[in-house]
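TICKET #2291
ISSUE: user wants both folds in one file
ATTACHMENT 1:
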Amino acid sequence: MSMNHYYLLGRSGLRVSRLALGTMNFGTAGFHAAYGKTEEEARAIFRRYLEAGGNFVDTADFYTAGQSETILGDLMAEAKVRDRVVLTTKFTNSVDPGDPNAGGNGRKHMIRAVEASLRRLRTDYIDLFLLHTWDRITPVEEVVRTFDDLTRAGKIRYAGLSDVPAWYAARAQSHAEANSLVPMVGLQLPYSLIDRTIEVEHVPMGRELGLGLTAWSPLGGGFLTGKYRQADQGLAGEGRLGETGSSGRSYTDQEWRLLATLEGVAAKLGVTMAQVAVNWVATQPGIASAIVGASSAAQLDANLAALDFELPAELRAELDEASAVPPRSLYQMFTPAYQSWLVTPGAKVADKPAEYAPVVRNWTADATA
C-alpha cells in the first residue's frame, strides 16, 4: 500500500496523510503501560509508516508518562525525518498531581507544556499543537491568545483542539477570526461506526469554520475488528476489551447487529472488518484524517491497506443504516426529512450545485504513486 496522497488539514496549507499514526502505545510507563511498546518495537512501526508515505504523527505529553514523546524524538532524530513529519502533540492533563497549574488549559500550563514537549521531542517546533481536553474553566480567549503567542514565537506552526464541545470550538475559532489571531486548523475527536455522536454538531461546525477533523478510535476501541464476541458477562476475545471482561460498557443489540453487518460487508469486499471500519471513517464528510495505531509493523500494514479499496455506495448505505442513531429533541428539526416537510415543502433547495466547487487535485487521474 502507498499513502503518497496528501490533503489539506482544515482551512490551511498543511498537507497531511489521510491516515495518521497514533503513538499512544509508544512507551511502557504510566496510564497506557499495559499495552505499551518498547523503543525497539516502536521503531519498526514508525519506520514502516514512513516507508508507506505517511507523514502525520500524533502523540501527547500524557501518553506513557511522556515516554511516547521521548521515543518519537529519538526515532525522528535517528531517521533524520523531523522536517518531513507533521508532528502533533497535545497538552491539558496534569504532569504534577497536586499542583493546580500543572494541568488544565491556562496560559501558565500551556507554555510549560510546550517547552517540556519540545525537550522530549528533541525539536524546536511543533507542527500542530492541540488542547487535549476542555477543562471547563479556562477562558477560551486565554487559550486562543496563547496559541497565537506560541505561533509568533516559532514554538508551534498550527493550533487546534481535541475533545471539546462544539460550541467551545466555534467560540475559539470565531474569537481568533474577529481578533486576527491564528486560527484553529484541526479538531481531534472520537468517531467510528459505533460512535457517530460528532455528526450532530461537530462535523457541520468543522466544515463551516475550517477545522479539519481527525478521528481517533475509528475501530471503536477494538470492538469493530470483529475479534470480540458476545458473552454472558460482556465480551469474549483476545484483546484489551476482552481482558477486562466488559470494556467498562455494555453493548446494545443494535451494536451487535452492526457488527454482523460490518462482517458481511467485509466478506463481500474480501477485506477485514477493521479495514472497512477505518475506510468508512476516513472517507466520511468533514473527516481530514483517521488515527490508526498498531502493535506491530504487520498490523500497521493491515491498517494502512484500509484505503486500498473503495467502499461502494450500496455497501456504505448498509453500514450507515446499521449504525444510524435517530436524532433526538430539537436535532430532529435539522434533518432533511423534517425540513422538506415544513421548511421548504414543494421545493427542492440545496446550498450549492454539486459542480460548484470541484475538488482540486495535483495528480493525474491514473496516478498510483
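ATTACHMENT 2:
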Amino acid sequence: MTTNDTDVGTWGPSVSWAAANARRLARQGLTAPTAGGPAAVAGAMVGAHAQVLSAAELSVALRLDGGETRESVRAALWTDGSLVKTFGPRGTVHLLSSADLPLWTGALSALPAGRNAMPDGVRMSEDQTDQVVAAIADALADDDLTVDELTEEIVARTGPWAGDRVMDAFQTKWPRWRQMTHTAAHRGALCFGPNRGRKVTYTNPHRMLPGFTPLPGREALAGLVDHYLYAYGPATPQHFAKWLAMPVNWAKELFGSLAAQGRTERVSFEGDAAWVKAGDTDFPVESAVRGAVRGVRLLPYFDAFTIASQPRRRLFAGAAYERALGGGQAGNFPVLLIDGAVAGVWHQRRSGKWIDVTVEPLGRLTAAQRTGLGEQVERTGEILQGTPRLTVGTVSVGAHA
C-alpha cells in the first residue's frame, strides 16, 4: 500500500490540536481518575518514567481516585507485583504494567540496535552480550542481587572480562557488563527488585510472572504502536521515533507496514497527515473541548503526558516553551497545567512532615485557578504523605539533571 501525504482528500477526519489534547488528557486520567489501580494507570500512560521514583509515584497516584497515596503505587510494585520497575523506552527506568511486560520486552528487544558508542577495549561483542544476558538471567533466577553480587555471579559464569572495571560512570569505573543492563531488561532477563537499604537490587521478572515470555518482535512492535496511538494519537512516525529515540526512517517503515495491514488510519491533524488506531476517530466536539480540559494540574518531573504529547510547541505554547522545557528536553521541570496547556513550573522540597511547594505561573491566576491550585497542592501533599505549604513565586532551582 502506498500513501500520498500531499493528497489531503485521502487523510480522513480533520482533528484540531484542542480536540486531540482533550482526548489525550482524558485517556491519561488527567480530567477524571483512571479506574483499575496503579497498573491500569501505568498502562494508560504507556509507562511512567521512574528515574526519580518519587516522581513516578506521584505521576501514577495523581491519576487515581482521591485518597490513594504513594503507598498504593509501592504496594503494586513490591507487594502484589502488578507493576514492574525496569528499563523502558529510551533505555530509561520506567514503571510498567506487569501484564504488558511480554509486549514491552518483545518490542524493545526488536528495536534497531544502532551503533555501540563504547570505545575500543570497553565495547562488548554480540557473543559477549549474549553470554552476559544469559548469565544475568541464570544468576537472578532464584534471588534478588545487588550490583556487586550480580557482578560476582556474572564473572563466575562468563569470565573475568565481564567484570573488568572499564566503563566511565559518575567519576568512577563500572564493570564491563553494565553497559548491557538495559539490554538484559529489554530481553526479559532483568528488572529491579526492592532496594536493600540504600542498595539497588535486580531480579528476574520470571520470579514475579511465572511463564513470562516476550512476544515475537513484529507482533510486539505493532502492539506498542497501538498503545502509543491510543494514548497520544494523532501522531506521526516522527513523533513515535522521538518518543523511542529511534531513527525516523525506521518508524516510517513500521507505520507504513501497519497502514498496509489496516491497523492504523490516517487523519488530518492541524493540516498535516497523522495517524490513529484504525477506527479510533472519535474526538471531543469543539464546543465541548474547553469545558473538558478546564482546570489546574501539577505534573511532576518526567510525567508521561509532557514527554509524549506532540507537537511540543502546542503544549508548551508561548513563554512555556522557553521556561518549562529545560533546554528543549521535556520533563526536566515539573509543570503547571492550566486548561490543558503548560502555564508554569513548580518545585517541592521536603523537610520532615512539611512539603514546601513553590509554583511559578507564567501569567496572572484567576480566583478559580488559585483555588484549583490550592486543591492540587493539597492532593500532592496527600499523595506524598506530608503537610504541604504553598508559595506562589519564582522557582529558583534549575532543571532536574
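RESOLUTION: both attachments delivered.
EXTRA DETAIL ON ATTACHMENT 2: The longest helix spans residues 367-384.
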